[in-house]
Structure formats: structure tokens, C-alpha cells
Amino acid sequence: MLATLLRPTSGTATVLGYDLTKEYLDVRRKIGYMPDFFNLYNDLTLQECLNFFAKVYGVEKAEIPDKIDAALNSVDLQEKRHDFIRHLSRGMVQRIGLACLLVRDAQLLLLDEPASGLDPFARIGLKNVLRNLGAQGKTIIISSHILTELSGFCTHIAIMERGKIVLHGSVEELNQKVHKKRKVTVSFLDSSQKPASILLNLKSVENMLVEKDSIHFETQADLKELASVNKILVDNGIEVTGFHQNKCDLEQLFMSITSQKETK
Length: 264
Fold this sequence. Notes:
The chain is of the alpha+beta class. It has helices at about 25-30, 45-55, 65-75, 90-100, 120-135, 170-180, 195-200, 225-235, 250-264; strands spanning about 15, 20, 30-35, 110, 140-145, 155-160, 165-170, 180-190, 205-210, 215-220, 240-245. A hairpin with a 2-residue loop joins β1 and β2. α2 packs across α3, α4 runs parallel beside α5 and α6 (about 170-180) packs across α9 (about 250-264). It is elongated, with a radius of gyration of 24 Å.
């Protein structure tokens, strides 16, 4: 629907400031859409394929060579530019599909199950490409039911149920909203007995579990307060080797959200 291929049954929506139904041609000029199976011409080389898409999208002729170079560089397929599409692996086809969107410098990328059918190595490669595109300032919306695909580079999520968004926000915000407390692990160079006695005296530390060289605890403290906890340990001569908040993966977060809804 956001790609303007389906008309909304009700309601209104805008993409990049354009109305989906009234200004759908303007939307199409600004976005790049990649379905789960991206069909390409097998008898073209990668360079010929990108050249074709650049012309279709109306890229200025003088700019096409640089656009192709930049797109291939973004998906790490520079060395394959003269290979035929039919010789590419499934993972490479997905990456060249992304390059077809990048050759016209789309402002918004809509990806439907981008890692569908990929082997683990290809998934890692695709994740790295998407992570790099995000670092370049690209806005990427991914539709996926395999949440492990999104872990590690997804910044915001929206969970839909029966066609309606039931919860949305940054991963950190939703994690805090669902779990209320942060789960923290602190590791030490030596025994954790002394740091345990220090942490016991801190009001912000709850439900502490002490192991040989590490301590796990829960807290409602914000990041600034957590930093002060670390400082207190160091100031007391504790050799801290690790201090981090345990991240809840997206599948765990999804299960927590849906289970809470079912109990209401």
C-alpha cells in the first residue's frame, strides 16, 4: 500500500508529504520498492541492468556512470559488474535489487521480506548492506515476519495485528515500556563478592544475581544513573571488565507484547 500498488480500503496516508491516492505518481518518483522476489533480466550484466533502471527512472545520462559506481559500491558488488544476472546467487540478486533502487537515489526504501530464502552467509551480507545504508542517512522500512532478520540494525519497530498498528516506537522505548526495568550485567577481573556488597547498598539495584566473576541485576535507573553505578564500583577499586545492558531481541519483545495483550 505504501508503494502505491494497492489502494487503501479506508483512511488516508502520506509518504514523504504526498497523498497515497491523489499523488501516487509523486510517491513513486521518490521511493524505491523491492518485493520479496526481485525479478531481473537474466541476460543482462549487472552494469547493463543498472544502466537500464537508471534510464527508466529518468536519471540524467551524464550522471548514470557515477550512479552505477555508487550503487555497486553500496552493495559491495563492484567486482561483479560484468557478470550476468543469471550467474548470481540468491543473496547477490537481492543486493543487486537494492542497487536498482539506489541508482536513482530513492529517498525511501520499502523492502518486503528482503532476506527471504537467503542462506546465513547471504543474510549477514544483506544486513551489513542495510546497516551501511542506514548510516548514510537512508530511511528504510522493512516488512518481515522473521524478526531475527531485523535484530542488530533496526532502530524503530511497528507491530501490526489484524491490519492495525498496536504498538510502535524505538526498540529501546518499547523494551522499556514492556519490561519496565533494565537488565544489566557487570563483569569483573576478580571475585564478585566485594562489588556485590557495594551494589547491595544502592537503592537503584534490584533482584541481584551473583556469579563467580559477574553480577546480573535489574534497575529502573536511566542511563546517567547507570553510569554513576559504574563509577561507584571503579572508585571503590573494583576492576570492571564489562558493564552493559542486556538487550531483548525482537522476537522476545514481540512475544512479551502479544502475551500482555492476550492477558488483558
